[in-house]
Amino acid sequence: AGLEPDIRWIVADMTDASGVFPDGGLFDVAIDKGTLDALLCTDQGSELVCEMFRLLSPGGTYLIISFRPKDFILKLLDLPGSPFQVTVERIPLQDSKIIAHAYYCRKVGDSIDLQTIKAYQDESIEWWHREQQPLLTPRREKAIKARFQSKLDSYDRLDPEGKLSLEDCHITLFEEEERDEYGYDLASFMLDVEAFSIDVATAKRMDIVQALQFLAEMQ
What we know:
Largest sheet: 4 strands, mixed
Structural class: alpha+beta
Strand order of the largest sheet: 1-2-4-3
């Protein structure tokens, strides 16, 4: 009720819409408002980009609106084989400290390979977090050590091994804004801890040395 009669509404998985749109080259424009941002928190960002390429007609535009750092997104879109011609402009947001950009990705290539794109983007994400925005900088390490000790001091009984519960480590190692921005909830943290060390995951506790090693290895 109240919907435009000339608009057809379709629900599809945009990382693989072949079940709904088996043929490609159907659309002149695809608009993405924060979808790539969200999927970069998972392992499906490359699938989204490749599916948009498949669905666009030759010369069509994949418009991405992103709140991620511009240099990061441009790096991710500088794809092997140059399937897209990318231009970018800043979106003015009144009374906001948030910076947003619009990326106009014009389809200029003939084909795209998911595995090649995925390998490139995974490497680019790892490079970005290691070289450009590492989780563990000297300043952050100092701040984490202070928060860690403060949380230890708040315990009714001081832990003789200087360890915090994993629940407390989660909120000590990551600011609330980081947990919200990346959707990094306790369950996700626990999975990463298990991948980092079965012993730590089993003990359900972590000292500051282990905590800093965790950040250095998992960033």
